[in-house]
Specification:
Blueprint (H helix, E strand, L loop, with lengths): L5 E3 L6 E5 L10 E5 L5 E3 L7 H11 L8 E3 L5 H4 L2 H7 L4 E5 L3 H5 L2 H11 L17 E4 L4 E3 L4 E6 L8 E5 L4 E5 L4 E3 L4 E3 L9 H14 L3 E4 L4 E3 L2 H25 L2 H11 L8 H27 L1
Parallel strand pairs: 4-5, 5-6, 6-7, 11-14
Antiparallel strand pairs: 1-2, 2-3, 3-4, 8-9, 9-10, 10-11, 12-13, 14-15
Helix pairs in contact: 6-7, 7-8, 7-9, 8-9
Protein name: Metallo-beta-lactamase
InterPro entries: Metallo-B-lactamas, NDM-1-like, RibonucZ/Hydroxyglut_hydro, ST1585_MBL-fold
Organism: Halorubrum saccharovorum
């Protein structure tokens, strides 16, 4: 699958995955469209390539007045940047996002500023988000259910990645839309890579979020990056190890170098070995993730001194 294309998710009727073409990397940005009685779009991409998403929704056969839900897993702009644009195009769709993300989608100014600071020259792959009207959006929380008519999605808070993050479970199809709660599964190398952005990444909570997915024991995981795959229990164990080892690697490098910018530069240089997305994205990803862990380590140290 390439940028702008979509395909059915094998084993899950009426579910489709759309490749947004994010960061000029095939399948990096996954948007899910559920053609249920009350259709839903799960995540939206950055909004930069929204016309191809509109085309996908049209080709699936969902009319503009029929889309019932625009459901973001969290407010980060690679997942929710297009929410306002979709709200403009689909007049009857209600927008939902975990409660702490509502203000960011209604007034995205602070989120845009933070994202530009974090991703720097990678902002070229984003688009200025359109605000979601406050009468079209509401917050959701643990245990809430999104009514799709012939099925429902159950909300599970997963704040390890960010306080405004959740994953969604369809009990009937036994599929979990993980967003970033299970890391990034990269099919090309058959492994899970951590995602630990600043400023509120929390390792301990990430491990609890992974355990929550594990307890559901689903048939399928729909990752926010690189798309769906069949669930294997070993995958969650692999993700837990990846997160623990990543945080320990940053901790050890900080102790060795004694300078946070040197730590970030070290991991940026190490990213040259990454071959499954373009070099500039690999470098930006390494910078973002290492800064998130450094911020987490500072917070842990502060809490231990209190």
């Amino acid at each position: 699958m390439h940028a702008g294309e979509f395909e059915a998710v094998r084993g899950v009727p009426d579910l489709y995955v759309h490749d947004t073409g994010m960061y000029d990397t095939n399948e990096y940005g996954a948007v899910y469209v559920y053609d249920a009685e009350r259709p839903v779009v799960i995540d939206t991409g950055t909004g930069a390539n929204r016309e191809t998403l509109f085309e996908t929704i049209d080709e699936i056969g969902i009319e503009r007045e029929e889309l019932a839900w625009i459901l973001a897993t969290h407010a980060h702009l690679d997942h929710a940047g297009g929410a306002g644009h979709l709200a403009e195009r689909y007049p009857n769709a209600e927008v939902r996002v975990p409660e702490k993300g509502v203000r960011h989608l209604v007034d995205p100014g602070a989120l845009v500023a933070g994202t530009k600071s974090a991703v720097q020259d990678q902002w070229q792959y984003y688009d200025e988000p359109a605000p979601v009207p406050d009468d079209r959006i509401a917050g959701i929380a643990e245990g809430d259910r999104i009514d799709l008519g012939d099925r429902e999605l159950v909300v599970h808070d997963a704040p390890g990645h960010a306080p405004h993050h959740a994953f969604y479970h369809d009990p009937d199809a036994d599929v979990v839309f993980t967003a970033d709660a299970a890391g990034i599964y990269v099919p090309e190398v058959d492994t899970v890579r951590p995602t630990s952005p600043p400023p509120q990444f929390d390792l301990d909570q990430c491990l609890r979020d992974l355990s929550a997915i594990e307890e559901l024991d689903p048939e399928y995981l729909c990752f926010g990056h690189f798309g769906p795959r069949e669930y294997e229990p070993s995958l969650i164990g692999e993700a837990k190890r990846a997160y623990v080892e990543w945080v320990e690697a940053v901790r050890e490098k900080r102790e060795a170098l004694g300078d946070d910018e040197a730590v970030v530069e070290h991991f940026e240089e190490a990213s040259r070995d990454v071959e499954f997305w373009n070099p500039e994205r690999a470098r930006a990803d390494a910078s973002l993730n290492s800064r998130g862990v450094l911020t987490y380590l500072d917070r842990v140290e502060e809490e231990s001194e209190e």
